[in-house]
Amino acid sequence: MAGLCWSLPPGAARPDCLYVWVGPEGSSGQQVLQLTHSACEWLSYDPAEAGAGAVRRGLADETRRLHKRRNFVVEKARAANIVGLLVGTLGSAGFLDVISALRRLAAAAGKKTYTFLMGKPNPAKLGNFPEVDVFVLVADAQGLILDSRDYLAPLVTPWEAAVALSGRHLDPEDYRMELTDVLAFEREQEARRAAEAGGGSGGMALQALGGLEGLSLATRGSANGREVIARNAAEYLALKRTFKGLEMPATGASPKAPELAREGLDGRAGVYRNERATEAEAAAAADDGRAAAAAW
After folding, report:
1. In the chain, which ranges are E strands?
2. Which keywords, in A-to-Z order, does the entry hold (predicted)?
């Protein structure tokens, strides 16, 4: 976890081990490790603090608050209608497979998905998409944003999104952060649905849903009854968005008449060519003025 892995003694399970954190209390590394091993017994020691009070038993207070926050955002993801997939990595192995798996899980849950590639996310960037109910940051454990209180819509991890889209609740004793865990989770869900359906229809249903990915179905009246129309995701987003920029009547400004394109500035950004000509004309006019004043 968090880019670190270790081997347990033969015959030992994770809950049977004592985990010791040596470092500052409340650091991001401690939060990630305690979040993924919350069912284990923990000891935390800060070398910067002196005395017996530097050793603390159990989970850190910040980790406990983070547990409650993660449960809250998972419930928000379960109730979301539009899910945004944020591509937070282009170098992690299997990130494209994880994005495809999340799309299939969202389609099976009847939710719309949009994929965003915008570099490092921040509240200002994501605030431009108020229609999205929840964002899924597809990144490795070191690049995840666990504290998203400043964002308009909550950010969840790929594992949390997979759990929410399958209709399950977050299990603190089985919390994962690796991208490969999402693929294994999807295979488990497919096997479970296939077993419930009797074997052959589960995979065919998923393939049918995958073919309709990105489409919005609507109905309207027609001469022969009702007609089904497939609208793409971009059209749906454009129709749903209420704010489309400032309009002339709202600002009070008079509309400008259309005009033909004209030649712009040319040259370096420091001094453009037409600016050089203007400066030369101004200098010549100043010289003429000084000459006239001297002659007078």
Report:
1. 18-22, 41-45, 55-57, 82-87, 112-116, 134-138, 155-156, 215-222, 225-232
2. Iron, Iron-sulfur, Metal-binding
